[in-house]
Design a protein that fits this description.
With 105 residues, this protein is α+β, with helices and mostly antiparallel strands. It has two helices and six strands; from the N terminus they run ββαββββα. It is extended and about 70 Å long.
Length: 105
C-alpha cells in the first residue's frame, strides 16, 4: 500500500490482484503518457559486434524522433535476422551501384 495524500491508501497491483473486496481499491490517476514518434533510425559509424556465446549481433544506432530528440542504442539481431539484413542491404548496395552506373545518383 502507498499513501495517496488524501488520508487513504492505494493498493499495489499485487494487492489488487489478491484483494477479496473490490470496494477496497482506491483509483490512482496519472497524467497521460506521451509516446514520441520515431522519424528514423540511423546506423552509427561504429562496428557491429557479434557475440558467439549469445548468438546475437549488436549494431550501434541513433533513434531520431520527430520532436528532434535522439537516443543512442543498439539494434540487436539474432543470427537469422543478421543474415536477412545482410541480404537486404546487399540488394540496396547493388541497386545504388546500378543507379550510379546509369548516372542516376
Amino acid at each position: 500500500m502507498r499513501a495517496t495524500g488524501t488520508g487513504r491508501t492505494a493498493l499495489t497491483t499485487a494487492e489488487v490482484t489478491h484483494s477479496t473486496a473490490a470496494s477496497e481499491v482506491t483509483p490512482v490517476t496519472s497524467a497521460p503518457v506521451f509516446t514520441p514518434m520515431v522519424a528514423q533510425v540511423v546506423p552509427l559509424r561504429r562496428d557491429t559486434a557479434y557475440a558467439p556465446k549469445t548468438g546475437v549481433a549488436r549494431m550501434p544506432v541513433e533513434v531520431q524522433f520527430r520532436d528532434g530528440t535522439t537516443v543512442r542504442t543498439d539494434l540487436v539481431m539474432s543470427g537469422s535476422q543478421l543474415y536477412a539484413a545482410n541480404i537486404q542491404t546487399g540488394r540496396a548496395v547493388e541497386a545504388r551501384e546500378s543507379a550510379r552506373a546509369l548516372g542516376q545518383d
